[in-house]
């Protein structure tokens, strides 16, 4: 089978390499020339553990290549996966679907044979029908071009593993032929035991939005409990552990911290609310608006705590921010709580120095006015407060005793709640972690 993967960001890179690993001939389509060049050299244009070797393996074998030319894939591929971005629309909470529609408008006029177009991008419910209408209107093959939606649940930092071994497969299809085709594409994980849910198009679209809305709710829930813990002297990490043993609740997404961020949850939650508004479903909006507010409040809470720990002064103070990525294991800085906090502290007048093991280049692009250090220790030099905002293992491995000699004031705010608190305290640090006594 021949597979086209259109759009090669975090989703499309993993998808194209994964499809090649499943044994198919794959062409990835990308309009960004810089990305394209890297990919054709077998290099990922982003940091994702395990992705580089997988790309290289299949580019070298000739099974995987990348192009910007849609004529190479249109009638070549048996299945076209759409993996274009769906960011938040500027000035609105809605999803910006222009990338998805640009893919459709570039592909459709070239489709002269029957084929299957499968959306993997996260989209508001109803989008797949709009995609279908656009395809049928513009494609010479007309209604012989079939649309399916197959939302993807990969987690950045585990993208390769999640692509090769998905925890579930959701096939939003309109025919048995489309289902059979998708079962063929995913034969390897299905044989391994990945469960398959076959459903209609709106259900498939809602599964993804619903999953992200639920995860965001769970994260904001534990962060609200962190506030309760602060008000009472309880420890939110133990609270999460004890709650998590209840299998109706589960331990996943119960880590209190600076709140969720990244290229998915924040914008997907808002797009979900926006669509609920268009559909007149007020319950969803009421619930999720609170979730979003609690999430934003976490960032403000860290800034307030920093101010308190600096003795109520910003000017003349040096603040170190450990972490720029929205979570560990990725270089993705989209809507990163770490960079947001860094930016807010800088706006208050403090001198902010940032270090991240993988996300420096991306961070510099979106926050060029922050200062960047080349190591964590360097970033901490002469600091009046150190903020631990992304949970990279190497930050946990820092030696608090050695770091004590580098800073001006040994104050650490462990917003991720995963440093070794007794070790930092024993080394003479004032250790604060919102949600822990
Ligand atoms: N990032 C994740 O972990 C993840 C997980 C599941 C689902 N998703 C969803 O997948 C979609 C893509 O997310 P992403 O993080 O990969 O986004 P991204 O912005 O990293 O990647 C999108 C890519 O599509 C390319 N593109 C845009 N228009 C194009 C066109 N007309 N032709 C060819 N390429 C085009 C862009 O240049 C870019 O490289 C989104 O809807 C997202 O919500 C993402």
From TrEMBL:
Keywords: NAD, Oxidoreductase
Reaction equation(s) it catalyzes: UDP-alpha-D-glucose + 2 NAD(+) + H2O = UDP-alpha-D-glucuronate + 2 NADH + 3 H(+)
Top-level taxon in the UniProt lineage: Bacteria
Pathway per the UniProt entry: Nucleotide-sugar biosynthesis; UDP-alpha-D-glucuronate biosynthesis; UDP-alpha-D-glucuronate from UDP-alpha-D-glucose: step 1/1
Residues involved in NAD(+) binding: 35, 86, 122, 156, 267, 334
Any single GO BP term: polysaccharide biosynthetic process
Binding sites annotated in the UniProt record for substrate: 153-156, 208, 261, 327
Active site location: 264 (nucleophile)
Annotated transmembrane regions: none
Group of enzyme by EC: oxidoreductase
InterPro entries with a match to the protein in the record: 6-PGluconate_DH-like_C_sf, NAD(P)-bd_dom_sf, UDP-Glc/GDP-Man, UDP-Glc/GDP-Man_DH_C, UDP-Glc/GDP-Man_DH_C_sf, UDP-Glc/GDP-Man_DH_dimer, UDP-Glc/GDP-Man_DH_N, UDPglc_DH_bac
Record keyword Oxidoreductase present: yes
GO molecular function: NAD binding; UDP-glucose 6-dehydrogenase activity
Pfam families: UDPG_MGDP_dh (PF00984), UDPG_MGDP_dh_C (PF03720), UDPG_MGDP_dh_N (PF03721)
The enzyme's E.C. designation: 1.1.1.22
Keyword Transmembrane: no
Similarity annotation: Belongs to the UDP-glucose/GDP-mannose dehydrogenase family.
NCBIfam families hit by this protein: NDP-sugDHase
Protein name, as recorded: UDP-glucose 6-dehydrogenase
Annotated source species: Kribbella sindirgiensis
């Amino acid at each position: 089978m021949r597979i086209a993967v259109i759009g090669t960001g975090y989703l499309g890179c993993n998808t194209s390499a994964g499809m090649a690993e499943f044994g198919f001939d794959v062409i990835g389509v990308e309009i960004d020339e810089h990305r394209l060049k890297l990919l054709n050299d077998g290099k990922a244009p982003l940091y994702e553990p395990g992705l580089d070797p997988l790309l290289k393996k299949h580019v070298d074998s000739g099974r995987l290549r990348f192009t910007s030319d849609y004529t190479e894939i249109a009638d070549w591929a048996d299945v076209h996966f759409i993996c274009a971005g769906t960011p938040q629309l500027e000035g609105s909470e809605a999803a910006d679907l222009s990338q998805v529609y640009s893919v459709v408008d570039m592909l459709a006029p070239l489709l002269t044979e029957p084929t299957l177009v499968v959306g993997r991008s996260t989209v508001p419910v109803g989008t797949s029908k709009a995609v279908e209408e656009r395809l049928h209107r513009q494609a010479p093959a007309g209604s012989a071009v079939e649309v399916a939606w197959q939302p993807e649940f990969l987690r950045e930092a585990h993208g390769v593993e999640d692509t090769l071994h998905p925890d579930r497969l959701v096939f939003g299809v309109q025919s048995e032929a489309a289902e059979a085709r998708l079962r063929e594409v995913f034969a390897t994980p299905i044989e391994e035991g990945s469960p398959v849910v076959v459903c209609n198009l709106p259900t498939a679209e809602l599964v993804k939005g619903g999953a992200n809305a639920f995860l965001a709710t769970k994260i904001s829930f534990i962060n609200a409990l962190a506030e309760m813990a602060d008000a009472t002297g309880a420890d939110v990490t133990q609270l999460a552990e004890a709650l998590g043993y209840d299998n109706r609740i589960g331990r996943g997404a119960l880590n209190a911290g600076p709140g969720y961020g990244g290229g998915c949850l924040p914008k997907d939650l808002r797009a979900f609310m926006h669509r609920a508004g268009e559909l007149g479903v007020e319950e969803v909006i009421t619930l999720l608006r609170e979730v979003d507010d609690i999430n934003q409040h976490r960032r403000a809470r860290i800034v307030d705590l920093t101010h308190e720990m600096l003795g109520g002064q910003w000017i003349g103070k040096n603040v170190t921010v450990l972490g720029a990525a929205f979570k560990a294991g990725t270089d993705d800085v989209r809507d990163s709580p770490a960079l947001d906090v860094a930016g807010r502290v800088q706006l208050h007048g403090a001198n902010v120095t940032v270090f991240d093991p993988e996300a420096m280049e991306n961070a510099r692009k979106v926050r060029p006015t922050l200062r960047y250090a080349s190591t964590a220790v360097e970033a901490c030099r002469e600091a009046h407060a150190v903020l631990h905002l992304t949970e990279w293992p190497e930050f946990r491995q820092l030696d608090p005793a050695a770091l004590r000699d580098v800073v001006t004031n040994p104050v650490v705010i462990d917003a991720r709640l995963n440093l070794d608190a007794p070790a930092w305290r024993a080394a003479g640090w004032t250790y604060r972690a919102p949600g822990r006594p």
